[in-house]
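Standup notes, structure subgroup. Blocker cleared on the zinc ion input:
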Amino acid sequence: MVIIMLKELSLEEKEITKRQKLIEGWDQKALKNSTVFLAGVGALGCEIAKDLALCGVGKLILCDMDTIETSNLSRQMLFFKGDEGRPKAEVAAERLKLMNPFVEIEVYFKKIQELSMEIYRGCDVIIACLDNVKARIDLNKICIDLKKPMVEGGTVGQEGHVQVIIPEGSVDKLGNPIEFGNKKAVVQSLIDEKLWELDEDLNADYFAAQEEIMKLEEQIEIIREKRINPVVGKIRMDVEKEINENYEQYFNFTACYRCAVPVPPPSGKMAAACTLKGIPRNRPQCALKSEVIFYNKYDREVDYSKMEDVKELADIANSELKALWKRVLEENISDEEKKSMTTEDIIERGKNIATVFGPLFSPEDMENIIGNKIPAVQTVSSIIASLESQEALKMLFLTHGIKVGEIMNPSYINYNGVYGQFDQVPISRRKNCVACGKESEGIENLSIIIPQNATFQQLFELISSQGYKLKPNVWSITHSLTKDFIYLPSSPKSPGLLDRVNEKGIESGNFYKFAAAPSNAIDGIHIFNILIELND
Ligand SMILES: [Zn+2]
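Run returned:
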């Protein structure tokens, strides 16, 4: 039996790829121990090689028989002026090494047909980035023969395609078949096929039933025609009239960003600030607390570019996390119970608690958690970035009076990388949109999180920290739905600034209207609809 030593990630590699690590199920070490073959290092090959090198794929094999030409420089982003005449694969390897010095790269300045089969055999996935049909046919044959999964793609003008090929008999590193396809759908289609071939004499009742259904469907059709369609038709006429009369609203403009995001979510920092008082109750709070402890200890902020700082921060966070485990363990075992437990029992219980609260922090976790970072990966980023470019390109042409295609409609698209699916999402313009709504001038929406026991003073200070310096002596607060007054500076009955908001009618999860006379407007805004969440 051959024992393969797995390659480990260096500290720097962990640091470089730590954002990817936030993605559920992500396994950087598996990537590090993967080999991808790229057939062709042209426009597609450069882009794909760059993506894979940045993501931290361990080994890339680049094969291209061409040298760089000046006309390549308009799109093959790994090649620069002055590279003309040099082999594409070789130059690409140099540039990829600059992007990720840890990637191992093997290059071949040859035709793909001239390579030894051993090279292909050593790869996990083969990617065709070729410019001719013949090479595609040959590479396809190699993949089928060696049972290697393959991705094939190409572009012609403004069109392109991608095809995935899993040859029969392809297996993963453990020898399990690499599955492709939807078993449920295959089963259903086979059932449909067999039903279609059913012998009519042997299944008389089945066919009689089908006949009955057909008759019922005819009746349904008649009912629809007589009693449903006239109503739908009337509504259709009204809708068409409404659209014709308000054509601009429906067709000439898209929804704006604020139509899609009417109330911006509160900033992560704000939520963090609210949880920092008191003792941490979960893993992220341990990390947040560690930053405060670090600041108090050294009288300066953490420098995330310094490994010593980040390591120290992780150590502090880990001692907070361990203290949390210990507290929870002690809370969960009564003194009586403790007497009947062996040391092993207690250790076992402790281990369970540690599992529930999550693992100790590694240095590369720290900035991700404290900065409230969002998981991100290059592959999806490049798809989205490319879509943005594509739409911007069409818009640019339109500004010159040239139409190369319709602007994306619906104007919003979701790409789901898990399912490989694009979903168009129709987003309508909102009449009351604070950015593009005609009736919403002087109105803004916000959402904030404040501590449960905050005072009105603190409430106003927190809104100020969001960039809107509302003076408590000119702004009133009303419950948005009930219209009840909560705070009214001119009234003697109003709560004072030192009163607690939760004792004077402010409840978590409601909208409150902050209003001032237009002469006291802030940035032209005299009404704020603020979604207030109270943090316990
Ligand atoms: Zn809008």
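Discussed briefly. The chain has 18 helices and 13 strands.
Next: hand off to the docking folks.
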